[in-house]
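Before a colleague's protein record goes any further, I have to sign it off. What it holds is a sequence and that sequence's fold in token form. Would you go through it and say whether the fold makes sense for this chain? The record follows directly below this note.
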Amino acid sequence: MINKLKTLFAIFCVTGIVATANAGLKGKHALPDNLAEHGIVESDFSKALKNGQRILEEKNWNVWGISPIVGDDGKIHVFYSRWRGTHSRWLSHSEIAHAVADKPEGPYTVLGTVLTGRGGEHWDADTIHNPTIQKVGDKYALFFIGNNLKRAADFDGHHASTQRIGLALSDSLYGPFERVSDEPILDVSPNKKDWDSYLTTNPALLQHPNGEYWLYYKAWDKYNDNMRKMGVAIAKDIKGPYTKHPKNPLVSFASMKRQVEDAYVYFSDNKYYMIMRDMGVIHPHVGLMLDSDDGITWSKPQLGYRTNTHYVNEQKVQRMERPQVLMENGKPKYLFLALMGGKYDTSTGFLLAVD
């Protein structure tokens, strides 16, 4: 009994919020007015967010996963997922598009499609999704996920079983972007006992101060505890090979039966930060923020961002996911998100300034 109580106490202490927070999250903003009463610690990042607005509301398109970068031309370039039809068609019809604006708030001019599924027997035959872009040396590195739905039968039949991470490079933000390989840049482990033997997805690149490339990624530990977790793979060259860290998974909420999703990692003021969509630690429509001194051992999660209804005059709390950060002089300046709803009742981008 003593050991059982210790285990329960440890689960509570992982975040310091789980037991009381979820019980009180009601109302328009899905969060209690007094966070401290529910054991919720709000990060400084969350406190600094302001001026929420939807961007890239495109008729007949679902927009998702907007990754920003400042171009050599001084313009704001965004690379994002888009597809037509119902939201579930992201599994089979998503592509990566490119838009440009004079400032993060827009308005944006859509320039067109950057990457699509290659069809046939390629690992990324169908959907191309969740881009993240950075300048690496004199190249632009565009990481993405892809799948091949016909190949799902080779695994367990689930659509997610073929999701992997790919990489395309270009000399210019205006393209063309060329895949660096016919194979994924980061594949699954062949050993089903490993946490990342089912899929690799949702890449987040950190250009480490030591010159290495740290590719954080999500995997679904389906063959073991069925929880989604975060790890990192490290390379000396942007094209790889990427070696998975021996301490993986680095971030897991499996002890409380919660999962990770959509992490983005950045380095600022000699500290590492990871912002992600919450999957139920506090509430599934808010974000979490973690920090680290070394990029390997991460802190307890704090509130990373609130719900859409907190930032804009909207009545319905909607899914808000896939955070991406635009940096300026080594500090976060804007938070880009994907948000369900909008005037076309599809999904759009969402922008928050970091004060």
Summary: The chain is about 10% helix and 40% strand.
